[in-house]
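Quick entry, no commentary yet.
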Amino acid sequence: MQVAVLAHESFPDRAKTAVGLLRYGDHEVRAVVDRERAGSRVADVLPDVQDAPIVASMADVPEIDALVVGISPIGGQFDESWRPDVRAALERGCTVMSGLHDFLEDDEEFVRLAAEHGGALDDLRKPPDDLTVAEGTAGDVDATVVTTVGTDCSTGKMTASFELRDAARERGIEAAVVPTGQTGIAITGWGIVVDRVISDYAAGAVERLVQTPADADLLIVEGQGSLAHPAYSGVTTSILHGSAPDALVMCHNAGQEVVHGYESFAIPPLSEYVDLYEQMAAPVSGAEVVAGSLNTSKLDADEAETAVTDYADAIGVPATDPVRDGVPDEVLDAIL
């Protein structure tokens, strides 16, 4: 499928879905729509991913099948400045895919345009109607289950999940990512966005996801939020308990000391964070943090190498920056 990705004034740092599609998606990205960076290319700001032109609006986008909202704002709300581009995509008969909390199918204008022009609205965050509470059966799956967890939102949990999957596949292991967020669903075409699920059913939704892939020997569950986050700890706990993991991989941004958007809240010391996750997992699965993933994108090569070493020492397990350095054998061995 040929797509364009909407990322106005957020690419690449605050456009997780856009970056995820460019790095891991099977779709051909024909353009990134960002009025602030128009005239440049993806390769100018984000190396080692699928390249595409960055344009100002849908008027500059070549023929596509779908427009994907590639921004993940706090609260997941639709920004009215995006309306002209969504409108233009629907008038061209495109599908518009969105992972926002504000559903496009609730917008009368978008529904009308989709019907008139043969377009479609795909709200990735809309959960199934038949979810239930967890039954405590996720631990019965035959596959090894690894859940990525973090010290904050946007610490690379989704990235680590796909990098671990690819490293395991290179070793000949049948591995799959279990998507729990809109970006993972946009990449893989399946999953449930857990933060949109009724709280009583959230762990049950994850339990269902873990039990879905029948042919995988290794399941990497995409984590969300963080256990000590003042707003999003609930979804983190639901994923941790619903997945009943065998092991945990803790993700962190190098040098980050406070919670993004909640700067009055300090991130606990890393060794204490490991204990928090292990204590929370203990009643359900007894999973331990066996490896670490560190985002060093803001550092130069020498600084990054030192940061990864210090991070591994702080959490007491092997660590890597999977984007910069890949997944070394010692990290994958620790997980397996």
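second:
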Amino acid sequence: MKKIIGLLLFTLLIVAGCTETTETYEEPLKEMAVHFIDVGQGDSIFIEAPNGKTMLIDGGVKGAGKEVVAYLKAQGVNRLDYVVATHPDADHIGGLISVLNSISIKEFIDSGKVHTSQTYEEMLSLIQAKNIKFTIPEAGDEIQLEDNLIIEVLAADETASDNNDASIVLRAEYQNISFLLMGDADHGVEQELLQKGNDVQATILKAGHHGSNTSSLPEFVEAVSPLATILSYGQDNKYGHPHAEVIDILQKANSEIYSTAEAGTIVITTDGVTYDIDAQQWTGVGATSSIPLPASIKSGEVELISKDVHEEIVVIQNSSNQAVNLEGWKLKSVEGDQVFSFPNISLAPGKKLSITSGPNAKTGTATLEWSKRQIWLNSGDAAQLVNTKGEIVSELQ
């Protein structure tokens, strides 16, 4: 259905005590399109300007990269003017590896947030090897795809302690139609945007963090006042996205809701006056108020009890009444695709064991060192504990 925004503006002129009403019409422009590509549990957004300039924002997980490339080529894209990596989480940059290997890129815009995952390092190596212009933006920067299409950087923080907090937040404006693209920005970023008085109002909102309740504060959504909201997530994902609290907030704001999980790739076209969403609205399948464990997870005697992404410490505990030998068990960083294999060690009943990583990683009493590299500086990265049978016995987001 085509929606009309700001088609008719009324200006009241008071001249010599007389009131005159003048009608002013906004002329439609050439059509542009924003594609919210279905990459499962992740983000990938493709913007086509009327003059042919292009921008790709994120690429989903590594396994989705071939699909993103195939989709772009099906649109006739052999060159991208801009590629934006909003932050270094694997579900945003993984697919960009295939894009870098397959499509010519003029300029790569990165959050600047350093991560030590293999995926992030591979991405940087490809950018350098291909001699692609590399830019780290600041809040207030503008990217002009054409005269009438301005994309503003509302937030970017390479010094953020958490990957999600480092998300590049973009607002694209095409005459009367606007798009607010939140990456994985959470409540803290939303509050900061409001406090700084940023113009966050937008016709279309791409909700932060896949519909997680760590994003989309009621007051923020109210300020955005979106007519439609896009949720990019994978059906039956292990995080329980979208969370029921977020759906409730969006519905109270009278926003239409669309999801890539249900509709697949969602394409929005606009001439600056009207817009059209080529998708069916979200039906409600998959919303939950809590994060359920996948059916494959078995209850067991050893479980993950905490994960500190800043101190890089994961703690497991033996909740049974007998010792458990952990040799052959594995601790996995799901999105980072990194694995720690436990040595021949026995965990006594009721006892805890810490697995440390990052610069302060160490081995000691009830402590094991995984790596001096950062593993968990990524709040969207789930931890999984896997036994010798390959069963997931515990999971923690």
